[in-house]
């Protein structure tokens, strides 16, 4: 049974006026190509270990990070529509092409985290690559809910898969474009196949992923939320990598991921490289992504600086609402 | 920098009398070869998804399980020293070779779980293959601490790695053989390199992995243990796959993994295919593996039937002791 090619599928979703032609034919294919390249580099990473003087992968982690960064930077050189890029490894927005280059009709800014999951990579757990794509020549000082039009999560595990989320806020309401799908790499033909054309998060869940759990030691609200899940016999899964944890929810069709912040256990997730793209993915699957410190939707707050960090509760909508409600009461924000 | 070949390294550890020659030159290489084959099959599994009528990996999970089972069964056909085998998919000990085959000097029985981690495989999380190797023509009704001489955990993640644990109880005390090491596959040459020659678990830990957490809803002792870890700000990691969870502890050098049993939430782990090999790995790394229902060491109890299940607390020795102590008090076993 033949599956629909990715490009054909995306074209069927996007406006027919051709205003997103480069996105479909150049930007998304190049980014997926770089995911395949990073996966391949990671598979080879044993060479680094075996050849090096140290015998733990952790010591060479930086090498793999740098390799991934370089592979992605090289991939986007062939993509005229990506005009600026910044990354978690080099968090400054810089032009991708020389100033003399011709100015493309479509212009996008890329923010990326080349290899997310540093705490688990040495154990050979699944890690990820995160891409956030913005309309225009900067991701900064723009409303994410309007300007961030796509996010891709590369999932580097036993297989190589990716989640693609798209949302075009400027599309006519009669033709809304919002999609979240899974593609899988055929390692022999280097072709990506659509394996889950529509990922959906149900409003309720019986799965939970408590990140930054140290915060619960000093935050009664978080402790009470976690104990509530255990008492109600919710299933625990927590890899400690944002990409595998969120992707597991999407594939399961349910889940709640919590990464609150307290005075002693600060917010850990980078807004530009982690929170915004993950929030877009979750929202495109029908879920919610909220900052539990103020109760605001993640995508309603502009990113002012590439280094900003934030807290997060995301996943199944009703679970997110309940958890955020309790966390806000705990900090007294609710009555403010 | 050249690393020592695996065969040379193992030979340097084992008795020089040649009584384990087939183990080194045939059994371990064949089993590692089958790990590489399973990893390859899993990478290709997207074909199953893309070509099938269902579009979730879960629906095709059985296919991948069966493929892994067949790959391993085929690999051991070329290994005369493995005289009997049983697996989680086919839990009956059967002869591997025709009755007319010549009788090898070394005789081993293999018990294996071809693909452990069914709950997380669809999300592209790291999963594992488990091998347990016993002296003689059966794994049943033998003392595991004496008869189970090796265990291999294949780790199928972004890379392909494996943990090899060996213990020869019949070796002279002056020359004890007990080792736990990590090897990594070079996917281009199909060679396994030693990447961590000696894995050790420290007696104390600040990491915890609470499996079967539903049991905590009805077991005050388990709930109190988990809340104790959170209060003391231990780091949570829980993949929900026995191989990735235990391997993470080994690579981190610390951790405690708990899978208790209660009346409402029964023991989940199979003694022959999961508990015994994992216990050997953990003990060979200097940790402990205990059944929290009776406080007995996992390897001190014979397996009577291929289908037996049991509970487990394993990892850093002092953490295991404390947790088991609390669970036994909770069930009243302590005073019995």
Can you walk me through this structure?
- Chains A, B: Residues 203-322 form the Fructose-1-6-bisphosphatase class 1 C-terminal domain.
- Chains A, B: It comes from Parathielavia appendiculata.
- Chains A, B: This is Sedoheptulose-1,7-bisphosphatase.
- Chains A, B: Belongs to the FBPase class 1 family.
- Chains A, B: Residues 24-166 form the Fructose-1-6-bisphosphatase class I N-terminal domain.
- The structure is a homodimer of 336-residue chains.
- The first copy, chain A, has helices at residues 6-13, 21-43, 46-51, 61-77, 144-147, 220-231, 242-252, 271-284, 317-331, and strands at residues 82-87, 90-95, 108-116, 127-135, 148-156, 160-168, 177-186, 191-196, 207-210, 235-236, 256-259, 269-270, 288-290, 309-310, 312-315.
- With 336 residues, chain A is an alpha+beta fold.
- The N and C termini of chain A lie far apart (57 Å).
- In chain A, the strands form three sheets. Chain A has an eight-stranded mixed sheet with strand order 2-1-3-4-5-6-7-8, with helices on both faces. Chain A has a five-stranded mixed sheet with strand order 10-9-11-15-13, sandwiched between helices. In chain A, strands 12-14 form a two-stranded antiparallel ribbon.
- In chain A, strand 7 and strand 8 form a beta hairpin.
- Chain A folds into two domains: 6-196, Fructose-1,6-Bisphosphatase, Chain A, domain 1 (2-Layer Sandwich); 207-331, D-Maltodextrin-Binding Protein, domain 2 (3-Layer(aba) Sandwich).
- The radius of gyration of chain A is 20 Å and the shape is globular.
- In chain A, 33% of the residues lie in helices and 25% in strands.
- Chain A has nine helices and 15 strands.
